[in-house]
Design brief:
404 residues, mainly alpha, two-stranded antiparallel sheet
């Protein structure tokens, strides 16, 4: 079960059966941690959801330097308890953590926590934690994979110059694979780099398939697989992968935030999925943006501008939220689009551009004509990842917002 889902139930420690019913699982492992100076005292128990009986329980005492091995010990003991149900390969996967350095392991967990929020600032914070983990353990494959993912999305968001992001992402992903090719994260990092920067789609697909073969229950693997399917225009597959990711990690913001329905032009489902994401986090900007995009392409401009204002408020940009409202009241949606195009720069090679390539783009670079689609290739990789963008109304919307 993904950490993002488990963390949601921390306040229900005294109701393991209820949590188990919510998550549709047979058993729930609970634990209590007490820290005394440099020592951790951990009490764990495995509870049957059906009966409420304790299936297994144990107490562990470790120093802070042995925290990373503690997870391995617990998973190994639980696997032994479930030995009739688990094969040797499954037990080995459960116990594998990738580092013996407790501090590096904690830094890696912090990196994944911030990365999984998926906003630009949090991606950068996550990347710095991965770097610190690598400083403590130069052979930590999962940390290199996390760093590769962070570089990929920093390049996408424009927080790191294009060429630097591309090179660093590829180098970190390849290092992760050299260190450990048996964890899905290494293959997914390389797939993201191939897909978003180099457009090596056949190689990206092979890496994704390998990741899924290594761990078919990895929600993130299905997330990336869904993104790839959207890039390839395989809408049904993208939707199926998105649903599988949510099934595996129902409270993950990344898994719940999905463009698959939007790209398939199933706008009702796109709205439903975005609203479900907002039930988890009412201020999650990507879900708000999906609602804005849906209203924009369906020519519901009043509702769209309210979502863009809500988006700025969620990001803490109160001043800009007020400015957008004033501009819309004065100049309509045309005024908002002009202001947005003037103030923002967009990545030259971005996931959003890749995803919407099969369709007319809502906002295209100034260098492209009104009726052209974006053309992405290896030559588009430059030392800068940004271009000025202009705005126009999508084909499914009416041109009335451009009226004087």
């Amino acid at each position: 079960m993904a950490r993002s889902t488990v963390a949601h139930y921390k306040s229900r420690q005294d109701d393991p059966q209820g949590v188990g019913h919510d998550l549709h699982v047979d058993g729930v492992l609970t634990g209590r941690v007490n820290q005394h100076d440099n020592q951790f005292d951990v009490e764990t128990e495995l509870i049957s959801v059906a009966t409420g009986a304790q299936l297994w329980g144990k107490r562990y005492i470790r120093s802070s330097n042995d925290v990373s091995s503690l997870e391995s010990a617990i998973t190994s003991d639980v696997a032994s308890c479930l030995r009739p149900q688990l094969g040797g390969g499954q037990r080995e996967k459960l116990a594998k953590i990738g580092t013996s350095n407790g501090e590096a392991y904690q830094l890696y967990l912090k990196g994944r926590y911030h990365f999984n929020i998926f906003t630009p600032d949090e991606i950068t914070v996550g990347g710095r934690f991965f770097e610190k983990a690598i400083e403590l353990d130069r052979n930590y494959a999962a940390a290199y994979a996390g760093l590769a993912d962070a570089y990929t999305l920093e390049g996408y968001y424009g927080s790191v110059p294009g060429a630097k992001a591309y090179i660093n992402s590829r180098d970190a992903a390849r290092r992760a694979l050299e260190l450990d090719s048996e964890i899905p994260e290494s293959h997914l990092s390389l797939a993201m780099s191939d897909m978003m920067f180099f457009h090596n789609f056949s190689e990206a697909e092979a890496s994704i398939k390998r990741a899924l073969a290594l761990d078919p229950n990895s929600a993130y693997s299905h997330d990336v697989s869904g993104w790839f399917a959207s890039v390839m225009g395989r809408s049904s597959e993208a939707i199926a992968e998105s649903r599988k990711a949510v099934e595996l990690d129902p409270l993950s913001l990344v898994s719940n935030f999905s463009l698959s329905h939007y790209m398939a032009r199933d706008y009702n489902q796109a709205l439903q999925q975005a609203n479900r994401t907002l039930e988890i986090d009412p201020k999650y900007p990507f879900a708000i943006q999906v609602i804005a995009w849906v209203n924009e392409v369906t020519a519901n401009y009043g509702a769209a501008i309210e979502q863009w204002i809500r988006n700025e408020e969620a990001l803490g940009n109160e001043k800009r939220a007020k400015e957008l409202r004033v501009v819309f009241e004065k100049s309509g949606y045309r005024g908002y689009l002009r202001k947005d195009a003037k103030e923002k720069k967009a990545p030259a090679t971005s996931m959003m551009k890749l995803l919407i390539t099969p369709f007319l783009v809502i906002r295209m670079p100034l260098s492209q004509r009104f009726n052209e689609r974006p053309i992405l290739g290896r030559d588009s990789i430059t030392s800068s990842s940004t271009q000025d963008w202009t705005a126009f109304v999508p084909t499914r919307a009416t041109p009335n917002c451009f009226a004087a």
